[in-house]
Write a structure and sequence with these properties.
two-stranded antiparallel ribbon, mainly alpha, 8 helices, single chain
């Protein structure tokens, strides 16, 4: 999450480097797989403030790479620095009388060196996932979400995944009944009634 001052610096630095590149706008849009609006939002983050963070980083990395290829030097980025791309800024909005917003930074596991220790990476990754799962479970309890929906030994995350699977099963069932309708085995009224039942209408 950038402050107003950081947005102003980021906009200035992106525009300076974009102008330094002397690139054709259509070429930049094509290379980045952006729309014209995406490019405009990223270059004018102050004016609009709706640019996706991933678009900002994508444009920043692209400009740096292309300017270096031309043999020129990129104007330094004072906000979008490489070390910041390794952080996650998380904001959780809760429907709770006391805990309405919880925000914090997290870092992902880092691979160091040319020949990284993949086993250490896996261990650190699993630790990070466990911390986030513990946090999710604690926040669910604080926010008053029912815990009985999770089976014994099942985490809130697993329970949520199971809940998401239910509509998929309903869709599959509706497709089966549609096939029966198309085959003339059931009537339109029977199909509509079954569909409403499966959709919980």
């Amino acid at each position: 999450m950038l402050t107003a001052q950081e947005k102003a610096r980021t906009q200035k630095e992106l525009i300076e480097n974009y102008n330094l590149l002397h690139a054709n706008e259509q070429q930049v849009i094509s290379d980045l797989c952006f729309t014209k609006a995406q490019l405009d939002d990223a270059l004018h983050v102050c004016r609009k403030g709706i640019a996706s963070p991933s678009d900002l980083w994508k444009l920043r990395d692209y400009l740096e790479e292309q300017i270096n290829k031309q043999g020129s030097h990129c104007h330094p980025f004072t906000v979008l620095r490489p070390e910041y791309s390794k952080k996650f800024y998380i904001k959780l909005y809760l429907q709770h009388p006391y805990w309405s917003l919880y925000e914090f930074e997290r870092t992902g596991p880092v691979i160091i060196g040319d020949v990284p220790d993949l086993n250490q990476y896996r261990i650190e990754y699993n630790e990070s996932v466990q911390h986030l799962e513990t946090l999710a479970n604690a926040l669910a309890r604080v926010a008053g979400f029912p815990q009985e929906s999770a089976a014994p030994g099942q985490t809130v995350a697993a329970a949520a995944a199971a809940a998401v699977a239910a509509p998929t099963d309903a869709v599959a069932e509706i497709k089966k009944y549609k096939d029966l309708l198309d085959s003339g085995i059931i009537t339109e009224e029977e199909f509509t009634a079954k569909k409403k039942q499966l959709m919980g209408i």
